[in-house]
Amino acid sequence: MSAVGDILQTIKEKAEGALAKKAAFGPDVDLSRFYECSPQERIESLDEVSSQLKEAALYAGVELENPGAGTYLQVDRSAVYERVLKPFEGKLEIMSVRRALEVYPEIVSKYWWKLIPVDTDKYTAFAELCFTEGYFIRVFAHQKVDIPLQACLLISEKSRVQSVHNVVILEEGAEANIITGCASVKGSEEGVHIGVSEFYLERGSRLTFTMIHNWGEQFHVRPRTAIRMEDDAFYSSTYVLMKPVASLQTFPQAFLEGENANAQFQSIIFAKGHSHIDIGSTLLLKAAGCRGNSISRVCAVDQAEVYTRGRLISYHDDTQAHLECKGILFSPGAKIISIPELEVHGAPKARLSHEAAVGPLEEETINYLRARGLKKEEALSLLTRGFLSIDIPGIPSLLKTYIEEIIKVTSRDIM
Known about the structure:
Blueprint: H1 3-16, E1 35-36, H2 51-58, E2 70-75, E3 78-84, E4 92-96, H3 97-103, H4 106-110, H5 122-129, E5 135-139, E6 149-155, E7 160-170, E8 175-184, E9 190-201, E10 206-214, E11 218-229, E12 234-241, E13 247-250, E14 253-256, E15 262-271, E16 276-285, E17 290-300, E18 305-314, E19 319-329, E20 335-344, E21 351-359, H6 363-371, H7 376-388, H8 397-410
Helix pairs in contact: 1-5, 6-7
């Protein structure tokens, strides 16, 4: 057996030993209740995508009618379309991760399961043993891609599991925006999505990553994400969830290993129905000049339950990071639980801070707007939109406008 084969065999054995291992957070999901996704045929043009799939992608922030610098489309278990626009050929590559493993076998030893242990829990184990593609994106050294790349992961079948493994590499000095939209089509209200994503940001690279989810009400979603950052690397992650799900649990980790690395996490959550959401991030600041923020805005209505976690860990005196969680409850049956953690290891001059607030909208402010002629529902909607709108560094203006429109439409339905 080759060296690559030995590595893959070891990974498989570890995964097999973790198939029954429950995650540290979030409700446990019986994966045996769901079937693996079916394969789908490749297409040569996005014109061949059905209107139903295009609509699902659009509500997850991916406009297939207007492809990005590079586009990856996966339907169920298959990568059906992957292409780089001609002006960007030679600047980046985007393809299914399975194809990338064939073309570049060195990925196995350098990147495959290097940031996330395959035996972390049953979901990472399942993603290895029941591997259903995922995307591979690499931006070459010193290339600045000014048009966003798009990756869209869709589920068109009911009661299915989609388990993907994504690898993103930005070489030295590279810059890019990536928009990932994940969604189920109408009629596919129940299922499981497991997404393992490993990001490698080399010296001086900059990545703005935006993920928008639009799953069915009975979906269980388990992203597993980690980022490794070298000197002067910048990473901005924005996660948007505005529709009800059965459960979501994710706790990405950013390893700021190089000097002056900077990581920013933003989460915008509107929890409805009986959604159980457990979301957070961990920043490990390991070198001089490392900076970071983790900011969440949460609205909860109906019987929704939201946990927001934040963990800052410093190993160097010259580091600074801040946690901020703000939540609004609109229903007596809803819950928001904020859990901040700050850790300092042998770095007495490190500066870590947190701020958390959960409560209602101020009645005085609502009455002020009503006195100006707005109905109560209109005042609540306006205030909610302002609360959820946060400054997202580096995000393309068109995507920012789209997110603001989602917030505007969603905030109308809070009473």
